[in-house]
Amino acid sequence: MAAGLVALILVVAFVAFLVGRDDSHRVNTSHPATGTPARSLTTTSPTPPPPVNVYANDAVGMLSPNVAGDPSLVYVPDTESNLVHVIDPATYRIISTFPVPARPQHVVPSPDMKTLYVNSDNGNALTPIDPRTGKPGAPIPVIDPYNLYFTPDGTRAIVVPEKFSSLDFRDPHTWVLIKRLKLPCLFPNHMDFTADGSSLVVSCEGSGQLVRVDVATMDVTAVVPAGKSPQDIRLSADGKVFYVADQDLGGVEIMDAATLQQLSFLPTGAGTHGMYPSRDAKQLYVSNRLAGTISVIDYATRQIVATWLVPGGSPDMGGVSADGSELWLSGRYNSEVYVINTTTGALKRIPVGKGPHGLCVFPQPGKISLGHTGNYR
Question: Which pTM value belongs to this model?
Fold first, then answer.
């Protein structure tokens, strides 16, 4: 009995040893050891960046402090009568008129929006307007200022002397010439800037080309064909493409912003000319001055979603009201100004002088004016 009991005790002890040894090597996935953090199998995806909107500062209510107290007015240059008509948008009536040098083409806000400039190309002058009073100052001698833009940092003005097929980079305060850049194209007209502001792209209506220029060096970096007669050019809200109005083709070319290669073409109507983003940066309004229509392009789909009629009219250049409810356009060949309701397309007509052109709705939201009749960022 004693021997059997001893044997039994030895067997039990050996089994206990084996169990203890196995436990020491077993991984317990339910209860990690004290002081050892449990590993999580869940991974966190990086938060995607918000979508780009180059017009994010142009929304309703985002007026610059620099325009505080400025009355809401519409300035209409009359190329045939050498006058500027000032319209009160609340009453749709002309409240004043003043003379300027020959063939005023556009009214352009300065980068800080404290001055407006009337571009008189044949008069070789820029006439400043004080937007607080709506009154003009003494003309400034500048050669052939058909159009006027400013670099995104506001340090240089870019005068477009169409007759010389050049861009004149000037000091925006003294108007001293910094550099005249001869372009490899004919009759430059309108321009816009890339999303980062490092390059500008100018349309050349006389030779059917787009020219890209490095803003810092003021040198040409690319030349590409663009339809027959490219006019206004606008960057899409996401910064990926340029929309180019072509008056001879009667439509809009959509060009890759990086390569300037054409991606598609949208027929809009004869005489496609001016383009203006909606206040919410979801749509682009395109004027067709020979067809007498305005095409509404959806930025997301790059398709036409509406067409507004201006019977017997010639809608040309202009801008969107500060609250986004109205699109104001000159009637280039009909001695009138058009006001289109951006919700319904309803039309008002205001009689003006013989040759209304680049009218300016002022003020508009934005941190800086890049020029033309109101290209804001």
Answer: 0.87
